[in-house]
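User: I'm writing a tutorial on reading structure tokens. Could you give me a worked example: one chain, its sequence, then its tokens, then a sentence or two explaining what the tokens reveal?
Assistant: Sure. Here is the example chain.
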Amino acid sequence: MSRTLYETPLHTIMDYVKIFIAALGIAMLIRTFIIQPFIIPSESMLNTLQIGDRLFVLKFSYGIHLPFVEKELFSMGEPEAGDIIVFPFPQNKKEDYIKRVVGVAGDTLEMRNKKLYRNGKAVDEPYAVHDAGDTDPYRDNFRPLTVPPGKVFVLGDNRDNSRDSRYWGFVDKDTVHGRAVIIYWSSTDFINIKWSRIGKLLR
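And here are its predicted structure tokens:
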């Protein structure tokens, strides 16, 4: 006599468990190698990114990494100036940061009175926010420096309220999790949803 599809409640439970495990495995693969969500926790990227913005980060923008280690299996490109990237904070690898790339390997950067120069030319930065009345000789100026191979230099768009490469140095390209591409949700609570920000492409 042939068996029915679900002969006992145990068979039903086991099939649901298998489906759950398969779905969980697929979700982990997607998060590890394809796309990862990220929540904006601070004001360092205003006005481009606001507290409560939820982003999708494209994991394979620059390469494929081994899970849980800072090891790139193979490269798929290089970060470009203007890219918004997510990476482990160099001084605390358990914490992720999001900043904008302003210089890549070989670029010579300089900042004079809040103005960024790349390879001797002033950089047009419509996204950068400054407070003219808030000055700091260290934060607002640095001498010419050249980005080493395999590194990038990053700044927050909210220049007067961002801890970035001006304070702790370069970011290893191989450690970059990926490039932020789109805001898929934005709210600070369950009521105040920022509808106009949802679906905004990032550049």
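What the tokens reveal: Residues 9-33 form the longest helix (25 residues). The chain has one domain: 37-197.
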